[in-house]
Amino acid sequence: MIGPSRASRPPGDRRPLPRAVRVLLGVVGPLLLLGGWQAYVRLAHVDEILLPAPTTVLSSLVDDRDLLWHAFARTAQEILLGLAIALVVGALLAVAMHVSRVLRAALGPLVIGTQAIPLPVLAPVLVFWLGFGLTPKLAIVAIICFFPVTIATLDALDRVDPELPRLLRTMGASRWQLMRWVELPAALPAALSGAKVSVAIGGIAAIFAEYAGYEQGEGGLGGVIQTAQLNTARAFAAVAILAVFAVVTTGILAALQRVVAPWAHRRPGA
Amino acid sequence: MQDATLPAPPAAPLVARGVRRALGGLPVLDGVDLDIGPGEVVALVGPSGCGKSTLLELVCGLQAPDGGELRAHPAALMPQRDLLLPWLDARDNVALPLRIAGTGRREARERAGELLDRVGLTRFARSRPDQLSGGMRQRVAFLRALATERDLLCLDEPFGALDAITREDLRGWLADLLDARPRSVLLVTHDVEEAVLLGDRVVVLSPRPARVTAVVGVAAARVGRDPTDPSLVAARRTVRDALHAAITGDRDHAAAERDADHGGGA
What we know:
Radius of gyration of chain B: 20 Å
Shape of chain A: globular
Oligomer: heterodimer
Largest sheet of chain B: 6 strands, mixed
Strand content of chain B: 15-25%
Helix content of chain B: 40-55%
Order of helices and strands of chain B: EEEHEEHHHEHEHEEH
Largest sheet of chain A: none
Structural class of chain B: alpha/beta
Strand content of chain A: under 5%
Number of helices of chain B: 7
Number of helices of chain A: 10
Radius of gyration of chain A: 23 Å
Helix content of chain A: over 70%
Order of helices and strands of chain A: HHHHHHHHHH
């Protein structure tokens, strides 16, 4: 095989960069941004109560590590469990809407409508109903996260090659068998793709839920941000943790997708 | 007095008499007659768009005829695109019709594995379709049709998407396999050479609305046919002439109708 040469790389070539290069660039990109940020805060003498320098955030990460770690454990729990609920409920909803035209017509506008509800409106109502424990947080994260899962899954179900049901019909397959052998496997990678999209907004939803249903000592990263007051660096440290968590969780979901649906990831160039 | 202990002759897997079918108000099949006996391979050729696929769907039970008589044993379909399930390996794809018929996973896999073993594809049993070549995928798709254990196979341009060499290779493979495991086959193709190489009989359809315009028998044994064999050359010429006659006849017929319309309207 001829090695990839920059000059001869044809337009539309979708070969990924070597893994080591990708990881390096993924680290260098944020570092460049942080470097610029650091220089701006120092050179322009920005008030660090307004915008702390990255190094200040870093020392907060170290100094407040116990507080932050405890808060992170809580928020991560909310995001991951909420996301799991969204994945299951969102996929089931898509299957129901795919199978029943009546359900599809009845639920379609409702599903889209839920996404228009602003979190600050939704969160207090759910806290009022479900109390101040973990439950309202999971509900809020799930309500925000199920939508991309449902849309992606429904889309995959709709795009199943129409010749496959015909072929299975000649074999005498039932509706359930068509679902089991064709539709569910086709929808699985799409549902996980939807969950990947949901990870970042799930973090935002969890923070809002923690704001609305603040619990003393179990406020999660949202509680840390809310109570940081003039300690802006600590709030930024909480945000940094959320951002890294989103990147790692998305990566884990991508890996999970490759494991459970290897057919959807043809090795490029193979 | 007749001997009642004699077994009844096996009913023909396919009997079609005057089958008619219209789609969207337009006639597609206009009284098609077609018989396939046990173990017989019938190739169906006709100009593109003549209704071959519609006839195939009727035989497979995916559509019902509007008129005429159609009696067919349950048929196994091998579609033009292999339609292997990308999430199943070759063995599980072959086992699919067994699973759908209610066979347990272990037994279905065992039987699919045997089928793959017998045609020398053991080492591909655990490969997913995206890891197989086009020719290999068509082989697996054919084995999937065989696995149904149905005595009537409907092959819809099974080698249409393959390159010439692979196609030639697969024709021989198919002829050998059908010799070892006889089945009645309805082979839809637009390739006259393929029809003559694989068929016991070649049925020529007219342009839409289709009816049978010629039936050409091929006497040579199906296995190891040589395309340059004089009898095959002759059969090919007969089929080709019948196809041309059907197309030009249709044109002349249409022209005559146009003239008649013109005369009547003036």
